[in-house]
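Tokens as discussed.
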């Protein structure tokens, strides 16, 4: 397996596409391959773009791709779609948006459906990003749709989080309230060619000012204008960038800021933090999935019927039933896979 990992190092798109087909969407990737991949990656910061559907994430990434290609960079893009909420047509949308790069050997775009993974991110996303890194794509960009609290998962995977918002997407304010801004290294307000963007910008800045006020323990920290013209709060909050992805206005400046952040995240210290954070996220996601699956299986067993009757008849407390369930689920998880 490690030879396969070695072969992929700096490989072309055909080899990479073949390797990706080995990454099982159900998450049962060969453990030795997975270990080899993990050991051989982690140097490249991954750039995450998240935000409501249709806000312009793919258009923005496409515009960044053009500029990164001019700098001679090879870029990998993983576009994740929550399959439950979207049609196949929409999934194709990301590719269409970035179609002009399809013939470019140095841009690799992979669209992934999430197959019910609540966080929108699955092990497959991470494996694909690792494969791209191994094949020499740098940066690796991950696009996810911010549809709710679970989307905050991107923060455990990406090293640099760009939250994209836009006027006319009614759920923006809810997302802001749901903590989306907290995971942002940068907040992009896109579609600033539309007049309604002023209101959104105002709301975002107010929310960030409120968060900065809370962080500083109640001192008033005014929003400061940095040298590139975007605003940042003095208490270390994210920068707010005004953008028109479609016309390209503001993209150059955003890229400069992204590259600055990217450089800062290539130190050995940042790499160590990244490794720990990714591993914690992977363990958490896998363990949650395994526990959830085992609990569901036990709940449909004859044993569970007894517990339900006992609870219903007032013979057991809920705590007692949950303890029994947990013990049975644990035993289930510890059985060899062939016994399950
Ligand atoms: N007016 C305006 N429209 C834009 C701008 N950027 C993108 N759009 C349009 O917004 C629509 C959605 O763009 P996408 O890039 O597909 O948005 P997305 O966030 O990737 O969408 P999903 O992947 O489906 O969530 C398209 O019709 C774009 O042309 C902009 O700066 N101004
Ligand atoms: Mg998109």
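Sequence:
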């Amino acid at each position: 397996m490690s030879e396969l990992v070695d072969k992929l190092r700096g490989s072309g798109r055909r080899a990479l596409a073949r390797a990706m087909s080995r990454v099982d969407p159900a998450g049962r990737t060969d453990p030795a391959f997975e270990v080899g991949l993990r050991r051989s990656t982690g140097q490249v910061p991954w750039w995450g773009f998240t935000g409501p559907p249709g806000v312009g994430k793919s258009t923005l990434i496409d515009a960044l791709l053009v500029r990164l290609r001019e700098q001679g960079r090879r870029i990998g893009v993983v576009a994740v779609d929550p399959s439950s909420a979207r049609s196949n047509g929409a999934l194709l949308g990301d590719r269409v948006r970035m179609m002009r790069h399809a013939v470019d050997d140095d841009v690799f775009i992979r669209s992934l459906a999430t197959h019910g993974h609540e966080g929108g991110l699955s092990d497959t996303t991470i494996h694909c990003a690792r494969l791209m890194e191994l094949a020499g794509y740098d940066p690796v960009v991950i696009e996810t749709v911010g549809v709710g609290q679970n989307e905050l998962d991107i923060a455990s995977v990406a090293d640099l989080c760009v939250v994209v918002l836009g006027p006319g997407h009614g759920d923006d304010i809810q997302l802001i309230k749901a903590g989306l801004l907290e995971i942002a290294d940068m907040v992009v307000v896109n579609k600033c060619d539309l007049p309604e963007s002023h209101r959104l910008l105002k709301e975002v800045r107010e929310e960030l000012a409120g968060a900065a006020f809370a962080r500083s323990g109640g001192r008033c920290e005014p929003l400061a204008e940095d040298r590139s013209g975007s605003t940042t709060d003095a208490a270390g909050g994210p920068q707010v960038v005004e953008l028109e992805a479609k016309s390209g206005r503001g993209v150059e400046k955003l890229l400069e800021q992204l590259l600055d952040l990217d450089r800062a995240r290539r130190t050995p210290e940042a790499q160590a933090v990244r490794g720990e954070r990714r591993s914690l996220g992977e363990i958490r996601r896998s363990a949650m999935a395994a526990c959830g699956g085992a609990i569901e299986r036990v709940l449909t067993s004859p044993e569970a019927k007894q517990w339900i009757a006992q609870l219903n008849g007032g013979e057991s407390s809920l705590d007692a039933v949950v303890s029994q369930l947990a013990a049975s689920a644990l035993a289930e998880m510890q059985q060899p896979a062939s016994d399950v």
